[in-house]
Write a structure and sequence with these properties.
Elements: E1 2-7, H1 19-29, E2 33-36, H2 43-52, E3 58-60, E4 62-66, E5 71-75, H3 87-96, E6 100-103, E7 125-129, H4 134-147, E8 151-154, E9 168-169, H5 177-180
């Protein structure tokens, strides 16, 4: 099963991708699912889940939360997460809500990123990001190896042509958020 784990819709301030167009593109690419990770909002997920039924693709609840240090991808929680809190407060909130927390683009220069601070925290996974350089993604891979946690892949698409540039392969079908996290 192939899922792009990091995509923005026009709910995000910096993306123009309409949800219907996003789902059509997903189907054309042959991807099985998507996590819509709008900035500090999960408002687009419910609409996307409803529309996804027409395209035979899966949409998973997710959000890219801005903390005081960097971005965290949160999966499997329908509640609106707090933002601009400390990394530790955000991770505690995710654990209290039985979700999964992934360090987004840990070494990306053009976005808030945790860089080496990632080692101070307990994440469920580290992201390989299509908008990062090879060396930035290699550093992310090293973090995952040292911390003994999985890697996920996401396009971080803000424009339709970038959807699916990197995705995550799952051996089993993922049918809902409980199976995803």
């Amino acid at each position: 099963m192939q899922i792009d784990m990091h995509v923005h819709s026009n709910i995000s301030f910096d993306s123009k991708i309409k949800i219907g167009l996003l789902l059509k593109k997903l189907k054309l690419l042959g991807l099985d699912g998507i996590a819509i990770t709008d900035h500090d909002s999960n408002a687009g997920t419910a609409k996307a889940k409803e529309l996804a039924k027409n395209y035979d693709v899966k949409v998973f609840s997710a959000v890219e939360v801005t903390t005081r240090k960097g971005h965290i991808l949160i999966y499997g929680i329908d509640d609106q997460p707090p933002f601009k809190r400390s990394v530790e407060e955000t991770l505690d909130w995710v654990r209290d809500h039985d979700g999964a927390a992934v360090c987004a683009h840990p070494y990306k220069v053009a976005s808030p990123s945790l860089r080496d601070d990632v080692y101070k925290h307990k994440f469920d996974a580290i992201e390989i990001n299509a908008k990062c350089s090879m060396s930035q993604n290699k550093a992310a891979e090293t973090i995952a190896h040292v911390m003994n946690i999985p890697l996920i892949g996401g396009s971080d698409a803000h424009f339709i042509d970038n959807v699916g540039n990197i995705n995550t392969s799952f051996y089993n079908d993922i049918n809902d958020e409980a199976e995803l996290v």
